[in-house]
């Protein structure tokens, strides 16, 4: 009996040192004054007696189940959930960008027309793209990419990186994304070249885009497009933007006046895409992502596990 209690005590102590304090079996042998083979037998005894329980959490397995739940909730074709070790925006952006790039590498085929937007997340995606030997692919900007500000939108770089990955040249919308007046915007859209680029964006079978917030530090607010009054209107009625088109909690356009001055693809056109791919994550974007999914603009979502869990909560 005394021997059994001693063995029990030693096995538990050995297990604590090995599993909780990362001691090597040789270090444990020295500390307990026994041989290394004895330590190995003590550790096995601890497992056999149920003193040690080992569970392995496979994040990939959990992510698939999580993605299926989001897919069902929002009636999506595909949900890809990337694993981020921490719930921090920069880290999340890194991991979902890689996931989106990997997905594109798997799915882009000859003669696809890929519509792209710009912004920090899209630039990250573009940097992660792998070269793919495809023929006849077109890459087109879905919205104007020129700003009034020195803040970098990465518009040209993003389009160029996409075009380079798929062995083509980019088609640009060399315009501001939002004009000061609807009259000027309509006049510009009548240009034959501009009209052709916008039409190509409508024909794109793949659209890749992210989502913007209406926080004060949002990229579009830094680019000088809006007056303070316009900014207040958007912040009071909207939750986010896709392709610089602002929408409310139900995914409906929240300012028709501003929307009428915006150059690029209409939100409704995104619903017709074979692959309408929204790449977005982070706590500050959850409300906007939910609204976009309610509006049914995306059929494919690339996000992280923290955002996916938040999207499943009411």
Structure description:
Belongs to the SorC transcriptional regulatory family. This is Deoxyribonucleoside regulator. Keywords: DNA-binding, Transcription, Transcription regulation. InterPro entries: NagB/RpiA_transferase-like, RNA_pol_sigma_r3/r4-like, SorC_transcr_regulators, Sugar-bd_dom_put. GO terms for molecular function: carbohydrate binding; DNA binding. The chain is α/β, with parallel strands linked by helices and 314 residues long. It has two domains: 1-49, Orthogonal Bundle (Arc Repressor Mutant, subunit A); 63-312, 3-Layer(aba) Sandwich (Rossmann fold). Helices cover 49% and strands 11% of the residues. It has helices at residues 2-20, 25-32, 36-48, 59-74, 89-107, 120-128, 155-165, 182-189, 192-203, 219-222, 228-237, 256-259, 267-270, 286-294, 305-312, and strands spanning 78-82, 113-116, 138-141, 170-171, 206-209, 240-242, 245-247, 275-279, 300-304. Strands 1-9-8-5-2-3-4 form a seven-stranded parallel β-sheet. Helix 2 (25-32) crosses helix 3 (36-48) and helix 6 (120-128) runs parallel beside helix 7 (155-165). The protein is elongated. 42% of the residues are buried.
